[in-house]
Amino acid sequence: MKKKFVNTLLSASVIAAMMAGTFGGFVSQAAEEEASSDEPVTITYWGWDSNFYEPLMEAYSESHPNVTFEPTATEWGNMLTKAQQALASGSELPTIIPMDMTLIENWKEMDIMEDLTTYGLDVSKYNEIYMDAATTDDGKVIGLFENICPAGIAYKRDLAKEYLGTDDPAELQEMFSSYEAYVEKGKEVSEASNGEVFLFHSGQAVAEWLYFASEVPNVTDGTINMTEKMTDIMGKLVELRDAGAVDTYQNGTPEANATYAGENHIFYPCPDWALTYYIESNDPEGSGNWGLIKAPVGYTHGGTAMGITSASGDAEKQVAYDFITWCISDPEGAAVMRDKVGYISIDNEYTADSEFFKRSDEDFFGGQDISTLYYQDIIGQASIVTPSIYDNDIVNTRNDVAQQVMNDPEMTTEDAVAAAVEELTQLVGSEDVTIK
């Protein structure tokens, strides 16, 4: 099952009250008193993205000089294992842990995170779907997600104009309103460029997009729907591959990232956070040459929740809670996250305020109103993949098989599905779940 978003437009008086700070960070009185204390407090943090946490910690410390942050750089893929090893060895956990959506169910099973509602968190103020994703079966809210991650398809205007006849986002949106259109246009572009220009740079990137856009649930009644899920994803990828629409780069490698500034790839699947972390960072001279359209199916991609470990001291927990809600609900913190990190809060008041969610990088996209496109048009149609404890294994399998599809032009959809089922079965290695 995928859960759909519903946009909620709030009254001007509610937005004004929140922006004036009367809503605050929804912190309880006790938490506010503790957080505003002049007593020195050190907050430890494990994180894989210094571009996210460093600007926020620096800004928070300016207004809270008694708070010191001690972040430890930790690879995304090592975060869960690092926590498990700390528990096994009796070593310290950090005060704050970021929990990726792909692993949120695994974090719930570890039972090491505080229930944020006990610190005054008002769940009704935040995006319902993301709050549900961070809530355990017994009602504990173990984290607060940072942003809502709407995703579209970014494109290079010069290549679109040369090979598709237009760089106008409205015209391209109409042209690419279905998956079939990508296949058809992929063939045309390949033929027109003698196989030198592709719609997409990476089969893994395409499979990632198709995974998050898929309506097939990962798990139903204890059964992993691998055949149906991978048929949906790999079937479309094979069609695009055979049309000459997809290049063979491995997603996220330096070689793949260099293509953003190149002249051979038109489209890139693009959640809002990728604007900063992929497009603008990898093509700094490309300002004005990028545009954005919706995918055929509205989707979101990503999301990370910040939570507080139960091993922390009371003073640290209170300050950690204040910091987390400051990042997401305080006007100052949410503005830092928007302007320096490129994230828009899951706080309903912000996503309802078109002035607040206006991104500062629209000039990079030729002056296009990508803010409304992301935070109203796309998110109004989008949904998220309902998380499960098997998501990380499913994602790793998806990436491996997608690259196999691109490396072997003879690999069929049936071959890819069989390879995915076999690999996932080995990864899961449990008789408690059925894989079909």
Describe this structure in words.
The protein has 436 residues and is α+β, with helices and mostly antiparallel strands. It has 2 domains: 195 residues, D-Maltodextrin-Binding Protein, domain 2 (3-Layer(aba) Sandwich); 223 residues, 3-Layer(aba) Sandwich (D-Maltodextrin-Binding Protein, domain 2). The chain is 46% helix and 13% strand. The protein has 19 helices and 14 strands. Strands 6, 9, 10 and 11 form a 4-stranded antiparallel sheet that branches. Helix 11 crosses helix 19 and helix 18 runs antiparallel to helix 19. The protein is globular and about 70 Å long. The two termini are 17 Å apart. The relative contact order is 0.18. About 7% of the residues have low confidence.
How are the SSEs ordered, and which strands pair?
Elements: E1 2-4, H1 12-19, H2 29-35, E2 41-47, H3 50-63, E3 67-73, H4 79-89, E4 96-100, H5 104-110, H6 128-133, E5 144-145, E6 150-156, H7 157-164, H8 169-175, H9 179-192, H10 203-213, E7 219-220, E8 223-224, H11 226-242, H12 254-258, E9 267-271, H13 272-282, E10 290-293, E11 299-300, E12 304-308, H14 314-329, H15 331-341, H16 348-351, H17 370-378, E13 383-385, H18 391-407, H19 413-428, E14 434-435
Parallel strand pairs: 2-3, 8-14
Antiparallel strand pairs: 1-13, 4-12, 5-12, 6-9, 6-10, 6-11, 7-8
Helix pairs in contact: 2-14, 3-15, 10-11, 10-18, 11-18, 11-19, 14-15, 18-19
